[in-house]
Amino acid sequence: MASTHRRLSLAALLTLSLPLPLAAGGPRLVAGSTYFDLSVMGKPIRWPTGQVNYYVDQGPLSATVTHAQAVTMVDAAAALWSGVPTAAVSLINMGPLREDVSGLDTVAGNGDLVAPNDVAATATDKPIAVVFDADGSVIDAVLGSQASDPMSCNTTGVVVWTDGINTDATLAHAAIVLNGRCTNTASRLKMMTFLLERAFGLVLGLGHSQVYPDALRQSRPEQAQAWPVMQPLSGVCGQGGGQCIPNLHTLQYDDVAELNRLYPVTAENHAAFPGKMLTAANTVSITGNITFRAGTGMQGVNVVAVPLDPDRNPLYQYTVTAVSGTLFSGNHGNPVTGWTDTNGTPLSQYGSADPAVQGTFDLSYMPLPPGMTSASYQITFEPIDPLYIMEMTVGPYYWGSPDPSGTLSPMTVAALAAGASTSLTINVGDSASGGYSDAISTEQAPRLLPTSGFWSGRLSQVGQGDWFNFPVRGNRMLTIVTQAVDERGLPTDAKAMPSIGVWDGFFPVGAASVGYGPAFNGFAAGETWLRVATEGDDVLRVGIADLRGDGRPDYAYNGWVLYADSVEPSHLPASGGPIVIRGLGFRANDTVLVGGRAAQVTSVSPNEITAIAPSAEKGRTGSVDVEIDDLPLFYAASIIGGGISYDAGSGDSLALVTAPSNTIPIGVPTAFTVTALAGDLQPAHAVTVTYRVQSGTAKLACGSSSCSVTTGGDGSASMNVTAMDGTKSVVVASLTDGANVKANFTGGTPPTLAAMTPSLSIAEGASATWTTEALVLKSGVPLSGQTVTWQTGSGISVGSSKQATSNAAGIAAKSLSVGPLSPGGSATATACVNGTAQCVTFTATGAQPGSATVEAVGGTRQSLSAGGTPDQIMLRVRDTTGNPMAGATVTLAQAVYAWAPPCPPHGRCAQAELLANQTASATSAIDGTVTFAPASLAGAAVNVSGIAATGDASTVGVVIEIHP
Fold first, then answer.
1. Of 52, 247, 531, 659, which is most buried with the most CB atoms under 10 A?
2. 605 pLDDT higher than 90
3. Where is the domain boundary, 210, 236, 259?
4. In whole angstroms, what is the distance from residue 887 CA to residue 928 CA?
């Protein structure tokens, strides 16, 4: 067999993080489904024969510990393991290394040593190198500056790494480094003895064990007598040192049994270990399989075997433990955080992928208590201490073991004599198997996120994930939350470890996530959360996977997305006002901030929040964020960036409707009309438009050189501008965000007559009464008492009286009957003053009603209490050029539903009862407006939903809530 060496990450004893999935409560490492020969998958990784040579450094350990003393300490620790009579292990000191290893000749690389040559991974002729690091420089070179500090002696007093593994699951090279800085007191030197004993156990391939970790805290000294050398912590030692465990120089039965399992003495190798005993014939064995009720193996249960004396009293000092599923992988990787460790090594490299071993445990080769030829055993089951994770892991789960599920009652195995074995089958009938729905989608075919934003799921199979798609808008921030729950539905940190990943929905399957939240990064029990910021409109793909890539019937969780999608209206006056926020995942206690100031929330459902926005900060205008917070437990939030503007906001603009230009009559007011548009080009309501005479002698109707107008529901604002003389003038209309349009004009000699209402747009086939006005002037001053005569043509008539007299304002008015007209057809009327040639023309134009558009003026979005009176619904119809259209038909259909409370966070929403339907039609007036009465039931709490339509395709929605 060709020997291939595979580097493993450096492992500082006890604390240095190992990115590979350790299996403890059993063997330290188990061959996986990659790198290794397939025939050894699931086999513990160990030395090929059990006869292992080690070589020691040439220099002293420190100024107070000579070379000879250090070698004696090393030999004693090795002899502890070699001396087990039922284990085929022999650790042999083969003499010195070629040099005194120090910081002067040490070269570190990727977490181990590449020089000197005889301590590097390639030095397989010296399988175990033992280095005496007198000044800590070797440890500092490998682990980082100050790693050797004496204040860390309980963690870096002895450092061990395994850097050579063959594809047949055998070890090829390892190193042990003793920190000379940890010999400065007798207590630290004694602790080093313990750490060195455990270092040889790790090098031999043993993992950590959990044996009565709370014995001393619970005043049970008899249980502390069973503390093994291979416990994950330093016993009762801290950085100051000490004896650490009660029996410092003795392997306990738990240590011996695990060594026996890794290196049994058999008939085939007995001759190579003279004086030792056959393992199976001189020990007892209990193996078994723990399964959930449906048969899936239950991994990560600490199985404790305690022999009983003849009076059936437990002999705690001879306790042996094993963890179920030790041979099965405990860290499979996942699509959220990845499939490799920090060194790029596939996580599939360690631990079996065979589900048959997922719940098995191995308590074989246990020595009988002294003086006993047989013994009964009490078998109990317990969870792994949640502190035992990562480099301190007990069991196969690198990120922590889940609690067992259901009831695992103690068992008694009747008297076992030396050489006897038995197997147990334990099906936990009351363990979790349902209550939550299994994940049903895949990354290739994600399901749509529930419309409420809430869901529940279960990751019951290894490698299983939950996948969702949902659309988002740009410039939003949202929060995705999961909370692991136990069989009772209560939050827990001891079951599933949901991790959240997010992808662009158009990225290919298998691509790396663009962001992820690792398990339990939140504030609440069992919570994982991820905040996502969007740049543009997109589709998000969300994946939920167990951090370990694990799956069990008791891995349930609740999921939730808090996302604010839109807010209406987009503009508010400085005094604030009512707003409606739509999205998903809203909860009853959510709060709302507008521009960082608290809004008064009036109602909450999973998809809608109504609130009263506060007034703007003094002197502040422009766009502000709208934020929904779920505090304090989950600390979830969603933000619509620049969602609302106090007055004009970022991206708002002005569109010119009409303005004075070129030469206008001196003294005749001329309309300067604009429309304010939001960033989405929708009319901006309640925005301040400031008109200002930038240059020239023009006057504004307000009587000042600068004045403001607030836009209406259609976003329009208008100001009359008058040229006072022949000077060129510039008048600017602007928003608070700087958007502006300009009118450039010069005053000229005025006619004696001007048309105030020169044009009309009227729907094809419709008729209307049109009041026309003509302004009579003399030297630019309105003149009263003058006779104006109207003449009409086809399609327009003036009635029996064709004359009108100008009033004090110089205006003469006459009502004309117009229509019907064909599309594009026109009808004109001429008005002349005092029978002269000083005339003006009034033109009515036929418009195609099918091309008409309808827009909201007011009353289409209302929320009020029962007993209140809703405002009238006012709409405006415009033709294709944007002019108000008279004579157009607008139909409004309204449905009245019984008011229903907000939907619950979980479960289905109540179906609201339809109480009434109402349909009405109205014809637009000369200014294009129509008015409707809202449908309602007197005194009743209802929701009114309606739609107004005109033309072929133009509609406006109506939503009125009359709540209790």
1. 52
2. yes
3. 259
4. 8
